[in-house]
Amino acid sequence: MFIHLDLGWMSHPFPLSSFKLSSEEQLLILRRLGLKQVRWSPGKSDLATDAVPMPALAEAEQVPAPASAEDLARERHKRELAAQREALLQCERQYAEAATAFRELMDLVPKEPTSARDRSVALSRALLDKMLIEGDLNIRLLNEGAGDRGTAHALNVAIIAMLLGRAFGLGREEMLDLGVGALLHDIGKSELAPRFRHRDDGFTSAENQAYQQHVAKGVAVAQQMGVAAAPLLIIAQHHEHADGTGFPQRINADRMSVGARIVALVNRFDGLCNPLLASKSLTPHEALSLLFAQGRSRFDATMLNAFIRMMGVYPPGSAVQLTDDRYALVVAVNSSRPLKPRVLVHDPKVPREEALVVNLEDLPDLGIRRSLKPQQLPRAALDYLSPRSRIAYFFESASVAPPGEMAA
């Protein structure tokens, strides 16, 4: 049976809230949740081979005329659109729950530091439980971020860092530590005056030193919380560089922990995509290109290459032009085919709310010609695709991605 759990994402251990029951163990866990009912989708379920046949139609009942090809296509489009919307809605619900959990733990830091630490571990574990599944994960773009910039940044860094840790085959405990360190990497900024919390190119030397203090202050706060050694190292080293040009200790890659090397890279990527001033933001494609061109000495080369493979050459949020000259927005990427993401295509004949996402992996003759800045899009394409000023990411199992595909 394919079922839907009307529960919060952090309220159950399953990777997804909608899935097909496939084992006695799942049934046992389901019973322990204490639910009075679950929703069931017969159309997505495997029917029993010994099902009782339906009784024959009464003579007065008429068999409906066969549906036309046009009706069938319209019905298929409706089903695929509904699946596409449900998949996105599920990701956004899960992201919203994670954002609420993060804000709650941050509120606890000054008054109940050990409770805040426990909440950070619980949130990291909830993310981890959803990631440690068989098969590939898609990284996808969300319509809405976490609201405040600090929460959005913490979640983006934690989610992408943990996905990169997963790609590197880190163990469960290492992944858990990575999640906690990534969530709390900027916790020291809460101890700074607001004007020093975000680095500005116009900072004086003294102002820059004040900004850099967030690392030492973060370590002190994390120690008060009782944070474990591994995530503490991530907080202490998330601004260090592989070539020793970072701060505050100016150590090189050999002295950085694996978790710190991951978070330093992802932190820089998100900072380029989501700066304090939206006018200074780079597209995800530009940010990756800059990291590759200028950051090969600053970051672990193996890690940087794996990060680019995972995010795709055109990460979600990138505006692109396809090889057939249409414009599109990358909305999801599967790391196994980095040049073949899923895209929302500008098609004046299809209302935006009815547009199906195109999976370029299924269309060998269609690809991406180039990446564009949003302002390079024609006005009609810009209004239709609505590129986000703030990039927010989540993940989903590639095996349950919606099957929708617009005609090429």
Question: Could you give a short description of this structure?
Answer:
The protein has 408 residues and is an alpha+beta fold.
How would you explain this protein's 3D organization?
The chain has helices at 24-32, 69-108, 113-131, 149-167, 172-183, 205-225, 229-237, 258-273, 284-294, 301-311, 379-385; strands at 2-4, 18-20, 39-40, 137-141, 319-322, 327-334, 342-345, 357-359, 368-372, 393-397. With 408 residues, it is an alpha+beta fold. The protein folds into 2 domains: 104-311, Hypothetical protein af1432 (Orthogonal Bundle); 319-400, no CATH class. Strands 4, 5, 6, 7, 8, 9 and 10 form a 7-stranded antiparallel beta sheet that branches. A 3-stranded antiparallel beta sheet has the order 2-1-3, with no helix packed on it. Strand 5 and strand 6 (327-334) form a beta hairpin. Helix 2 (69-108) packs across helix 4 (149-167), helix 3 (113-131) crosses helix 5 and helix 3 crosses helix 6. The protein is globular. It starts with a strand and ends in an 11-residue tail after the last strand.
SSE topology string: EEHEHHEHHHHHHHEEEEEHE
Q: Would you identify the regions where 5 or more consecutive residues have pLDDT less than 50?
A: 403-408
Q: What class would the helix/strand composition place it in?
A: alpha+beta
Shape: globular
CATH architecture of the largest domain: Orthogonal Bundle
Q: Which fold does the CATH topology of the largest domain refer to? A: Hypothetical protein af1432
Roughly what percent helix? 40-55%
Strand content: 5-15%
CATH top level assignment of the largest domain: Mainly Alpha
**Termini, distance in Å?**
34 Å
* Average pLDDT taken over every residue: 88
Number of domains: 2
Biggest sheet features = 7 strands, antiparallel
Number of strands: 10
Q: Report the total helices.
A: 11
**CATH H level of the largest domain: which superfamily?**
Hypothetical protein af1432
